[in-house]
Every structure is written in structure tokens, then in C-alpha cells.
What we know:
Layout: E1 14-16, H1 29-55, H2 62-89, E2 95-97, H3 98-131, H4 136-139, H5 142-160, H6 162-168, H7 185-189, H8 197-230, H9 235-243, H10 246-268, H11 274-285, H12 287-299, H13 301-325
Antiparallel strand pairs: 1-2
Helix pairs in contact: 1-2, 1-12, 1-13, 2-3, 2-12, 3-5, 3-6, 3-8, 3-10, 10-11, 10-12, 12-13
Amino acid sequence: MLTLNDSKCRQPTSFLLAGISGPGAGPQPWLYVPFCFMYLVALVGNSLILAVIKLHPTLHEPMYLFLSMLSLADIGLSISTLPTMLQVYALGSREVAADSCLTPLFFIHTFSILESSVLLAMAFDRYVAIRHPLRYVSMLTRAWVGCIGLAIVIRGVGLHIPAPILLRRLPFCKSHQLSHSYCLHPDVMKLASADTSLNSSYGLFVLLSTLGLDSLLIVVSYTLILRTVLSIASWKERAKALNTCVSHFCAVLLFYTPLISLSMIHRFWRKAPHHTHIFLSYLHFLVPPMLNPIVYALKTQQVRKEIIWVFQQSTLRKRGMERRRR
């Protein structure tokens, strides 16, 4: 473990990452392989969603434009956590330079907030589509969707620019050992040998004004959606309306359930095993990017139809090339 003498307290040059088996474990191929598979599925699945939406004008509607934003956030989140995860589990290397720690830290938190913001925008989209179906197209134009997307980016980036700056000014005299295989703001902050009240207040403000507010507004949106659906006389129309929300509801559960569970454990089960925190953080950061494209491909008929069409066209092209060679 890297340590610094208390009398020579200074800014850190490096941190030590940790994995499921603790800080002292070497390369772990048995974990490296499934993690690689998860990243591959996430990157390929979300890239396929983006390509299908871009290539098919019929999918240039608000619902699918927001889905493309969600896929971009998932890709960014996967790329942000990938380097240090592979470093820990594939190479067994635990040490990461301070700059190489604080930069991914910024992007991990930023893309996490972007995903939360997009989920909120998608909840609003479903509310407008069900509550005001006749005004849906006129209310959510491409210009408005673009403005919402820009606001999401400005919000996510702007709120997290101070994070690495505030951490950079802190001295680290005792331990440089982190609790996760990637850098997170609370994890780095707790190692500081100085007053971190400013960092803590800032982190709490960001958490409440983003994830906390977003989750509350999503609950409000679904409450209003449910009230609207229950007012519909036909059971068939009710089922049809609710079916348009299934994919988004699954995405919300995938994103927020591990996060809420981790927060509850931090508050009410402080002696929880180390691997419990690691496992829940992996569920929060790794599972949604992998499963979101699968859920939308399976539950959204138009997306599934266009993906099948892409594969059919690809198969026909290969057969045509084989015939020409013959």
C-alpha cells in the first residue's frame, strides 16, 4: 500500500484500486472474461441501437431520439469504467496515477447523471404521449428534443466540473487505497487528511439535485400516467398504453434499484462485507448499459423489427457476394 509520511502531506501521485477479492489479489481471469463479455454486449448492443435509429427515418420520433441519448450515455459509462476494470482483473495492476483516476471519475459521474436525466426525459415523453396523444407531435418536436438533450449535457457536465478540482486540492497523508476498481468521488474524498466538508456538501447537493430529484419526478410522472390510464374505459386501450412504458420502466428499475440498495446499506448496514458494496456498484454501473439495449430490442416492436431487418439485409448481402464469387 502506498503511504506518505504525515509530515510530508501532499497531493497524491497515485491511488490503489481494489476488486471483489480485496486489495491484495492478483490477476483474476475468471472475472476478467465475464466482465469483457458484459462490456462487449453493452458496446455492440448500444451501437446497434444507435445505427438502427439513425438509418431508419421512421424511428426519428421523440421516443427513439431519447433512446439514442440513453444508448450514448450507456456507451460513455461503459468506456469510462472499462480501463481500470481491465487493469485490475486482467493485469492485476492496482496502482493508477492521480490524473488517470480523477479524469475517469469525472466521466463516470457525468455519464451516470446523463443517464438519469435521459430516463427522466423519457418518463416525460411517455407522460405526454399518453396524457396528450393528439398534441404529442406538436409538443415534442425535434427542436424541443434537441434543446432537452443540450440541457441534459450542460447539467451533467456543469455539475461535475468542480469534482476533480476540489479533490485535487486535498492532501492525502495516510492511505491511498480505494474501495472499488474505478475512481468515485466519495471513495477518493474519504481518504483525504483534511477537512472535506466542502467536498461532502457539494457531493450531497449534486446527488440530491440530480439522482434524487430525477427519481422523484419519474415517480410523479408514472403516478400521473397511471391515473390517466385508469381513466381509460377500454381494457385493451389501457394495456396498449401501459405496454409503451414497459421498456422504460425496466430501464428505470435497472438503473435505480442497485443505487437505492447501496444507499440503504451505507446507512443501515455499515458493517456490510466489502464485496457487497462492490457487487452493488457493479450492478449500478455495468448492468444497465448491457441490458438496456436488450430490453428495448425485445419489448419495443418497432426497434426489434428494424434490427431484424438489418440482420436480414446483412445476410442477403453475404449470400449475394458468395454467388458472385461462384
